[in-house]
Amino acid sequence: MTTMERTGGLPGAVAAEWTKFLSVRATWWCLTGGTALMLLYSTASAMAQRYDSDRAQGAHDIALGGGFYLTQFTVVALATLFVTSEYSSGSIRSTLLWTPVREHVALAKAAVLLPVLFAFGVGASGVGMGLSGVLMDGHGLSTSLSQGLTATLGMGAYFALLGVLCTGFGWALRSAVGTLVSVLVLLAPLPIILTSFGWAAAADYFPGIAGINSMIVAGAPSPVTGSPPPYAPWVGVLICAAWASAALLTGTTVLRRRDA
User: Fold this and answer.
1) Which of helix, strand or coil describes residue 49?
2) Residue 234 pLDDT more than 50?
3) Mean pLDDT value across residues 13-38
4) How many CB atoms lie within 10 A of CB 3?
5) Total structural domains in the chain?
6) Separation CA 195–CA 43 (nearest Å)
């Protein structure tokens, strides 16, 4: 068996994508920027709790808000550039030459993003809760162990699946701008429009709202929508997984049918 045969296929594609991911400066800028935005939001929100905030929040609520309103957009940027930057630079031709099985290329990028973004979500949530808890200094609401764990694991799962969703759009559209606009509209404007038309129940099944719902213990109100989610946190994860799987399947189909 030759060296190429031993290291090729999907494992070889994953190894190659890891090298690309870790060697690109944009990766570290996005992860650092996302952490900084979480710290900024947590600081501002925690200080507001100390000075008679109109709505009392716990550290877990603040972390959820930071993830939804700010940090998730760095995840979108990171995952989008991981795919579309190869089209803009032309390096996608080399990638597909080295890994001619299109499905392996798409799956390899998803396999790299899943653990990284899960760890990033867990870390960002933990940092946000830790900082806001210290700065609130007894003000606001308390955070139970179950609330903290649900928020942390839910954010990790949501960020990981959001990254896969973005790669699916990236493969299908092959454009950073097109992917960013499409994903951002899907995450926020569309659910807001549906709610304004009286279809608020449908908004809970869009990936952005489902992602937030996956971070909230059953029966607790959402810091984003103000009402309790209509399903358990694990259902929110499944909804996000369904969106991510559909996007990746669509993107892989387009990649397989169209040349680079």
Assistant:
1) helix
2) yes
3) 94
4) 7
5) 1
6) 30
Mention every residue, 6+ apart, whose C-beta is less than 8 A from residue 142: 58
Q: Is 126 exposed, middle or buried (CB count within 10 Å of its CB: 0-12, 13-18, 19+)?
A: middle
- 253 CB-contact burial (10 Å; exposed 0-12 / middle 13-18 / buried 19+): middle
Q: Phi and psi for 108 in degrees, rounded to 5?
A: -65, -45
> Could you tell me if 14 and 112 are in contact, meaning their C-beta atoms sit under 8 angstroms apart?
yes
Average pLDDT, the chain: 92
At 258, is the pLDDT very low, low, confident or very high (cuts 50, 70, 90)? confident
Cβ neighbours of residue 114 under 8 Å, at least 6 residues apart?
Answer: 160, 163, 164
- The first and second tokens of residue 223, run together, are 């810091």
Alpha-carbon span 227 to 238, nearest angstrom: 20
- Residue range 19-44: average pLDDT? 95
Instruction: Please report the pLDDT score of residue 169 as a whole number.
Output: 97
Task: Please give the Cα distance from 194 to 111 (Å, whole number).
Answer: 33
Distance between CA atoms of residues 93 and 141, nearest Å: 53
Q: Which domain holds residue 237?
A: 3-257
pLDDT at position 6: 44
What does the pLDDT look like over 162-193, one tens digit per residue?
Answer: 999 999 999 999 999 999 999 999 998 999 89
The whole-angstrom distance between residue 44's C-alpha and the CA centroid of its chain comes to 23
